[in-house]
Amino acid sequence: MKSHDAGRHPGPMRVMAVDAEFAGVLIAIGFVLLALIGLPIAKWFLLGTVMLGTAIV
Q: How many Å apart are CA 42 and CA 33, to the nearest integer?
């Protein structure tokens, strides 16, 4: 019987040099920048959420 585990590809987790939390933060920042560049009204939404968050905290 042929062993299927021997020739498996190691996958991206074997070569990643950063942890998942850091990669997630980078992706989140990328989405925010993409929204700010693509949608001009998004900058006002982001500004409003930052102001509201600052007022609550």
A: 10
